[in-house]
Amino acid sequence: xxxxxxxxxxxxxxxxxxxxxxxxxxxxxxxxxxxxxxxxxxxxxxxxxxxxxxxxxxxxxxxxxxxxxxxxxxxxxxxxxxxxxxxxxxxxxxxxxxxxxxxxxxxxxxxxxxxxxxxxxxxxxxxxxxxxxxxxxxxxxxxxxxxxxxxxxxxxxxxxxxxxxxxxxxxxxxxxxxxxxxxxxxxxxxxxxxxxxxxxxxxxxxxxxxxxxxxxxxxxxxxxxxxxxxxxxxxxxxxxxxxxxxxxxxxxxxxxxxxxxxxxxxxxxxxxxxxxxxxxxxxxxxxxxxxxxxxxxxxxxxxxxxxxxxxxxxxxxxxxxxxxxxxxxxxxxxxxxxxxxxxxxxxxxxxxxxxxxxxxxxxxxxxxxxxxxxxxxxxxxxxxxxxxxxxxxxxxxxxxxxxxxxxxxxxxxxxxxx
Length: 418
Fold this sequence. Notes:
Layout: E1 25-29, E2 32-40, E3 43-46, H1 47-52, H2 70-73, H3 77-91, H4 100-106, E4 109-111, E5 116-118, E6 126-129, H5 133-144, E7 160-162, E8 168-170, E9 175-176, E10 179-182, E11 191-194, E12 198-199, E13 202-208, H6 220-223, E14 227-234, E15 237-238, H7 239-245, E16 259-261, E17 266-267, H8 268-271, E18 275-276, E19 296-297, E20 300-306, E21 314-320, H9 328-336, E22 347-349, H10 364-367, E23 375-377, E24 380-382, E25 390-398, E26 403-405, E27 409-414
Parallel strand pairs: 6-22, 8-16, 9-27
Antiparallel strand pairs: 1-2, 1-5, 2-3, 3-4, 6-7, 10-11, 12-15, 13-14, 13-22, 14-16, 14-17, 18-19, 20-21, 20-25, 23-24, 25-26, 25-27
């Protein structure tokens, strides 16, 4: 699809959902139960209506009437691409079948201002990786020193752990400050307390499309076609709870209380124009992780914090998805190389994405350097997050005269339960 193509739906150059995007999500409205959709301009496109109007490929019949995208996702890459092209076709100005008024009367277009967004897929399993070398180096330097920042295995495999799928929530869902065991004084026993060091983590997430059978891993050359698309992700972190619990088996309660994702899944087809060379990997990975089409994506990422008395968010981080060391295909391939069965709707988080410069650090832990360098915002300093803070994550890939965006990934911190 040419970058010059236009739609009969109006939108500006900074719109997140031009005709070059065509993301997939799930929405409900006053007279509509949750169903699958795409977005263009300031509208959701009801794909159940598009099907009734005969605008979609025959292979998708019935797939979009569910309250999750899984039925569509399991149809595979060829159908995803064919469907996206068909949607672009009926939205293109050159093939004008509707105008905005008639499309709204048909129920095809619904203003985004009037919809409620839901999780885009039923998530069976969620895994979080640790794929940014800059982030891993920063955290390792804080806790082990510069000379021992990276563990010996880090440059050989994408390190990950199994998260909690049940607490993955869609943008806008409140986040309650967690409670748990901490040990603020190393000379005394642990205590049960409210988390004091609440943090965000700037990540992206990849949704598995078709997956594989148990015991039948796929090759890295097949991994790209098994990724349905990407979302923004905030993998909230209770640093003090995590610090006490994570040895020897890794994060548990410090991470499982909430993971926020953006509501629209952006396909790899939409992101292909923004594919760039990946970071150099040294040493060379083992053969099963050597992707002949190894790539990264030039996706600009931004994090803002809006305190309870602020009118607008204030930017604290400007990073980019290109700062990932381990690619999406390498993460997925490593996950299934032992025969693990990846299933439609499984979610893989990248881990915190940080760049080489301080303003590119993707967590408060790094931005405040473990609380030693507080951030100065208009309503006061921050070492970590306060109650009432809303964390706002955005991301987009910039084309010539258009941008491909993800929608917001927002969450407001509420006080711990009494």
